[in-house]
């Protein structure tokens, strides 16, 4: 399922304030947290970008490039903008960016396949997943047509992904998961312990 017009982008620039250290580098069952999502998406895209302001480790692949935020301290919206600017600067042909967080170890590639399969690309320039009544604002598909507006709004002080997406006109793709939540994310040390217990099941 290589989508040649989509750049896979892992947003790893968060401060992990609630966790107390860079979550991407946390070891979960002898595997770095960032590598869980990378291993699920590595075969789905021609290239993957990691946006992180730290010196981090991750699985080795010629497909993966790490960059820093265009401007630091502006949140995940700036991570998206940084990826869009990378596309322009490096003269890539990607028309879309698929974004993923680093802290969801139970996300599986089939969810990505189903998400994209259910998208009508003519309906919107922005798509998010919603599952079990929860909207996931970092699991998204962003058209690079949004670059100029995103940069302007960031410069004007916008920081909240949800508010910005609503103003743009985001299209929501609904998915249901009756058993374990594949979007369970690790925000605290307690979440990490819960993830360890789930992996033992």
For the record, the count of structural domains works out to: 1
- The unreliable regions are none
Question: Number of helical runs?
Answer: 6
**Any idea what the CATH architecture is?**
Alpha-Beta Complex
Features:
single chain; 201 residues; alpha/beta; Spore Coat Polysaccharide Biosynthesis Protein SpsA, Chain A; seven-stranded mixed β-sheet; 7 strands; globular
Describe the structure.
- It is a single chain.
- By secondary structure, the chain is an alpha/beta fold.
- It has a single domain, classed as Alpha-Beta Complex (Spore Coat Polysaccharide Biosynthesis Protein SpsA, Chain A), CATH 3.90.550.
- Helix content is 30%, strand content 20%.
- It has 6 helices and 7 strands; from the N terminus they run E-H-E-E-H-E-H-E-E-H-H-E-H.
- It has helices at 33-41, 76-89, 109-117, 147-155, 161-168, 189-200, and strands at residues 6-11, 48-51, 64-67, 96-101, 126-131, 134-143, 171-175.
- The chain has a 7-stranded mixed β-sheet, sandwiched between helices.
- Helix 2 (76-89) packs across helix 4 (147-155).
- The chain is globular, with a radius of gyration of 16 Å.
- The two termini are 30 Å apart.
- The relative contact order is 0.18.
- The mean pLDDT is 93.
SSE layout:
Blueprint: E1 6-11, H1 33-41, E2 48-51, E3 64-67, H2 76-89, E4 96-101, H3 109-117, E5 126-131, E6 134-143, H4 147-155, H5 161-168, E7 171-175, H6 189-200
Parallel strand pairs: 1-2, 1-4, 2-3, 5-7
Antiparallel strand pairs: 4-6, 5-6
Q: What is the gist of this entry?
A:
By secondary structure, this protein is an alpha/beta fold. It contains six helices and seven strands; from the N terminus they run βαββαβαββααβα.
């Amino acid at each position: 399922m290589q989508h040649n017009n989509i750049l896979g982008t892992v947003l790893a620039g968060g401060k992990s304030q609630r966790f107390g250290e860079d979550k991407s580098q946390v070891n979960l069952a002898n595997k770095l947290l960032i590598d869980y999502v990378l291993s699920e998406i590595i075969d789905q895209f021609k290239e993957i970008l990691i946006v992180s302001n730290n010196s981090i480790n991750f699985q080795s692949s010629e497909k993966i490039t790490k960059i820093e935020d265009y401007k630091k301290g502006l949140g995940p919206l700036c991570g998206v903008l940084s990826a869009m600017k990378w596309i322009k600067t490096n003269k890539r042909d990607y028309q879309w960016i698929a974004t993923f967080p680093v802290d969801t170890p139970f996300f599986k590639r089939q969810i990505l396949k189903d998400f994209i399969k259910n998208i009508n690309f003519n309906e919107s320039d922005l798509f998010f997943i919603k599952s079990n009544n929860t909207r996931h604002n970092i699991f998204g598909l962003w058209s690079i047509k949004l670059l100029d507006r995103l940069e302007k709004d960031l410069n004007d002080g916008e920081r909240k992904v949800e508010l910005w997406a609503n103003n743009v006109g985001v299209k929501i793709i609904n998915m249901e998961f009756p058993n374990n939540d594949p979007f369970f994310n690790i925000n605290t040390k307690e979440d990490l312990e819960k993830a360890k217990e789930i992996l033992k099941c």
